[in-house]
Write a structure and sequence with these properties.
The protein folds into 2 domains: 91 residues; 179 residues. The chain has 15 helices and 2 strands. Helix 6 packs across helix 9. The radius of gyration is 21 Å and the shape is globular. About 12% of the residues have low confidence.
Length: 276
């Protein structure tokens, strides 16, 4: 009876525990290769996990009036951390088609960020504009090609096209990293601020895309991608705006900021561990 009383008196905590248990069991089933069948382009198991994670985020985002804001923040952070540490199938075993769709869904943000880069040169000092333009001139072509390849994979999934997506996302990531290093050397404070802000926005989207591609790549494929990454994350981390990255991810996914910040940190840690 005590269990029933606890559930009745603490419904939000009980619901969060149930969702976390669902994610834990689903992660274990996924590691054993159990999918429970197909659902659209993915699996029933990945669909269950996605719903459970969404509900967990909504539960954390809608705090009870009886709790203090500090307690709500702590609970949100705890639930989000637990969810992120679980071996979720959609982070480590989702289909390439799902990832291709996610990349396509990031297209508006990428297009907007690249367009901002293209218009930023006019805001810089005359001596700085040519340097910035030269550093970012490849963004348009590289981003357009990446999205085109993702759409091609959606239309006709194949290992060949997936390999092209893997190579292209690293190419774009390297262009962005190089641009960050170049813009950081601009000495005019106003020019540097405008330039870094523009490139940082592109970096957020590219990092998200890279994390997506990593999630459907084998260890061998990730290692091969990492060998193409000559400008490592450690070199450009001082010039990344992690607060802005969290806000962009939260807005794109429609989730709590704290959860998005943890996802950004996790993605960066995964990239570093993989050799990027």
């Amino acid at each position: 009876m005590n269990y029933l009383a606890n559930i009745w008196n603490h419904p939000r905590t009980s619901a969060a525990g149930l969702l976390i248990a669902t994610l834990t069991i689903a992660g274990a089933l996924s590691q054993q290769g159990i999918t429970l069948g197909s659902a659209g382009t993915g699996t029933v198991l990945s669909l269950v996990c996605a719903i459970a994670t969404a509900l967990l985020g909504l539960l954390a985002k809608d705090p009870s009036g009886a709790s203090s804001s500090t307690e709500n923040t702590a609970r949100l952070g705890a639930w989000a951390l637990i969810a992120l540490l679980l071996p979720l199938p959609f982070m480590g075993g989702c289909s390439g088609t799902t990832v291709a769709m996610d990349i396509v869904n990031w297209t508006p943000a990428l297009t907007s960020a690249v367009a901002t880069v293209d218009s930023t040169g006019a805001l810089l000092a005359p001596a700085d504009a040519p340097v910035f333009t030269a550093a970012t001139i490849g963004f348009d072509a590289a981003s357009t090609l990446l999205v085109a390849q993702a759409k091609a994979y959606l239309a006709n999934p194949s290992s060949t096209v997936l390999a092209q997506v893997q190579a292209q996302v690293v190419t774009l990531q390297q262009q962005v990293n190089a641009a960050l290093l170049t813009t950081a050397r601009i000495t005019n404070p106003a020019s540097q601020q405008h330039a870094l802000a523009a490139v940082q926005a592109v970096a957020v989207v590219v990092s998200a895309m890279l994390a997506l591609v990593q999630s459907v790549s084998s260890k061998t494929q990730v290692a091969q991608m990492a060998t193409q990454s000559t400008i490592k994350l450690a070199s450009v981390r001082p010039y990344l705006d992690e607060d802005r990255a969290g806000r962009m991810v939260a807005a794109h996914l429609g989730e709590p900021l704290e959860l998005a910040q943890l996802q950004v940190a996790r993605a960066e840690a995964a990239e570093t561990q993989s050799g990027f």
